[in-house]
Amino acid sequence: MSNKKLKIAVYAISKNEEKHVARFCEAAKEADLIVIADTGSTDATVELAKKHGAIVHNILVTPWRFDVARNTALSLLPGDVDICVSMDLDEILQPGWRDVIEKAWKEGTTRIAYNFDNGDQLPFMQNKIHARSGYVWKWICHEWPMPDRIEEVCVDVDFVMAKHKPDVSKSRKQYLDLIYACATEEPDSARHSTYYARELYQQGFYEQSLAEFTRLLTLKETILPADRGYAYRMMSRVSHHLGKSEDALTYARKCTLEDPHTRESWCTLSWECSVQGLWPESLSAAMTALSIKERVNANNNEDDAWMHTPHELAAKAYENLGVPHLAKAHAQMAKSFKEKENPDERSSSPAADQAGSWSKGRHHDVPHKRRRVQAGERKRRRGQVSA
Domains in the chain, ordered, with CATH? Predict the structure, then answer.
């Protein structure tokens, strides 16, 4: 850029985050300022934030919308801020974060995309670091900063900028109503439909989830093959939970036809075939999954597909097909992956938790569709910077 020192602000919204606020402020202390818009904490969040150097504003957003809250927080930043780093209080900026941002931010840059550790084994891309002007948050829930009448210039950095350390005891029940409001507000949005269908599934409303995924596939909006594959992947799982074995298998096969280049598709088919005792097809799908070596950095990836799950599935299939030496080899590889993921875990069965983890599904917070839409619908220049 120039010799001018960049002014960097970390900003966030909060409500009853006393467990996280000291850690958050300590990790962000290299910022020129930390601004928190508190939305009604009844615990010690505000006092602790001020004690640890944050500037705290009390705001009221009713009816609740995340986009309004974040836009309000953004509006509280001084106009001379160059770079805005949006965070949640249960996220932790990693050592060296400021140096990486300063090296990446060149003249004309408006946004930085970076790796984000959501608590799983493999980080994914996020891009909530942006210029002070030209961005506005959109959507009631699963909100995102979108460019507003600017030519976006986004730079990618190969650096884990932040880690997510959430309070797992917090209920997600409020999100269902908010995501439903999103889907109602923009009924033709594949993004909102995907979120709504997934949330219904995660909260156990299987019939409604299946209906929404089915509706998703009929929308006029162009849906990429990877997103159609994801929908069929989830429809297979939902059907399995509903006891509809024939439908579960049909959807799993459709998943591989729509999106044959990802391990997740083939693990879905292998798992369903395993449940139904279709061992040759289960083995073929598991080995196809293992033959895929390149992981696309998409947000509907599932980490298990790139670690123990395909080996567990192959081991189970080989075991039932009477090939014990190959079953043992894949079981050992699965065990090695699982010990790296959790050193305290020592599973003796090659498929010990496969039904528990793979059929449930573990997803990052931003569907695949969004990154593709952002990259495809906007004119943007991209640079590649390694930290």
Answer: 8-168 (3.90.550.10), 171-223 (no CATH), 236-366 (1.25.40.10)
